[in-house]
Specification:
Blueprint: H1 6-20, H2 27-40, H3 51-66, H4 76-91, H5 95-107, H6 115-127, H7 131-142, H8 151-163, H9 167-179, H10 187-199, H11 206-223, H12 231-250, H13 257-277
Helix pairs in contact: 1-2, 1-4, 3-4, 4-5, 5-6, 6-7, 7-8, 8-9, 9-10, 10-11, 11-12, 11-13, 12-13
C-alpha cells in the first residue's frame, strides 16, 4: 500500500505504534515512532507539495526504524510500514531502499527470510551503484545462499567494495588469498590485507568489523599464516575479537555465533600451547 501523503504516513505510524505500545520488546521502535508522530502530527491534513522532500523524509523514517530493537523480529505492522516505504522509494529508483529491503529478506527480520528475494534487491541496488549492496551480494555468492557457491562472482563483488574502502569487503578479499578460492593461494598477501584492515580500524568502524579482523589476525599469528607465529599476539587479538563479538551478538547479529565459538576454542588452544612451550 502506497504511503503517498502526510495523512497516510501519520496514520501508518500510529497503527505501528499502537500495535507495539504495550510490548516492552519494542521500546526503541515505539520511541522512534512516537518521535516521528510528533513531527508529522500537525501536517497530517496536508498533501505533499515537494515529492523529493517527502521521499527523503520517508527514507529517514524507514532507516531509523530499520535498526531499532535488533534482537527481536520486527512486529508485523512495523515491517509492513518499512516494506511499503521501501517499495515507494524503489519505484523512484532509490538504491538505499533496494539494499535495505534486501537486508530485511536476508536476515528475516521483516518476518520472512528469503535469500532469493534478498539477492534480487541486492542485485538491483548494486547495478544502481550501491556498494553496500554489492558487498552483500558477495556474501550471497560466497556462501551459496541461493544455490551453489560462486567464488568468482563473490570475489568480484568484494573487490569492488574493497576499492571503495569497505573494510568488510577488503578482509573478504584476504580470505580468498588465504584459502586459494578463485585466486592462487598466497598467505603472505592474505596477512598483508588483514594487517591493512587492522591498521584502518578506528572508533567509527571497530564495532562493525573489528571482531572479524582481530579474529583473522589471531588465526594468522597462531598458525603462522603469512607471518611469524606469535602466541601472545594471537591471544591478544582473540581477546579483542571475543569482546567485540559479544557486542555484535547483543545487538542482534546472530550470524556471529559460530565466529564467537571459533574464537573461544582458539583461545583455549593458544593458552595450552603457551603453557606447554613458553612457561617455565
Amino acid at each position: 500500500m502506497r504511503v503517498d501523503n502526510y495523512a497516510v504516513l501519520y496514520r501508518r505510524l500510529e497503527i505501528a505504534r499502537d500495535a507495539i505500545k504495550d510490548d516492552e520488546r519494542y521500546a526503541e521502535s515505539r520511541q522512534c515512532l512516537e518521535t516521528f508522530m510528533d513531527m508529522y502530527g500537525d501536517r497530517e491534513d496536508f498533501e505533499v507539495d515537494d515529492e523529493k522532500q517527502f521521499s527523503s523524509e520517508k527514507l529517514e523514517i524507514a532507516m531509523e526504524l530499520h535498526d531499532t530493537d535488533p534482537t527481536v523480529e520486527m512486529q508485523h505492522d512495523v515491517a509492513a510500514l518499512l516494506t511499503d516505504i521501501y517499495d515507494d522509494l524503489i519505484a523512484e529508483g532509490n538504491d538505499d531502499a533496494m539494499c535495505n529491503l534486501g537486508s530485511l529478506y536476508y536476515t528475516g527480520r521483516g518476518g520472512t527470510q528469503d535469500y532469493e528475494k534478498a539477492a534480487y534487491y541486492y542485485e538491483m541496488a548494486s547495478k544502481a551503484g550501491n556498494r553496500q549492496a554489492t558487498e552483500n551480494l558477495g556474501y550471497i555468492y560466497y556462501y551459496g545462499r541461493t544455490g551453489e557457491v560462486n567464488y568468482e562472482k563473490a570475489f568480484h563483488c568484494f573487490l569492488k567494495g574493497a576499492l571503495d574502502n569497505h573494510l568488510r569487503s577488503l578482509y573478504k578479499v584476504g580470505d580468498f588469498y588465504r584459502n586459494g578460492y578463485y585466486v592462487e593461494k598466497d598467505e603472505k598477501e592474505a596477512f598483508r590485507i588483514y594487517k591493512l584492515c587492522y591498521d584502518m580500524l578506528d572508533e567509527t568502524n571497530t564495532s562493525h568489523v573489528g571482531a572479524d579482523i582481530c579474529m583473522r589476525m589471531g588465526d594468522c599469528y597462531f598458525e603462522g599464516i603469512g607471518t611469524e607465529k606469535d602466541l601472545l599476539e594471537a591471544l591478544e587479538n582473540m581477546h579483542s575479537a571475543e569482546e567485540l563479538f559479544y557486542v555484535r551478538l547483543m545487538d542482534g547479529d546472530f550470524y556471529q555465533k559460530e565466529n564467537l565459538k571459533h574464537v573461544i576454542e582458539r583461545e583455549e588452544e593458544i593458552r595450552k600451547e603457551i603453557k606447554e612451550t613458553m612457561l617455565p
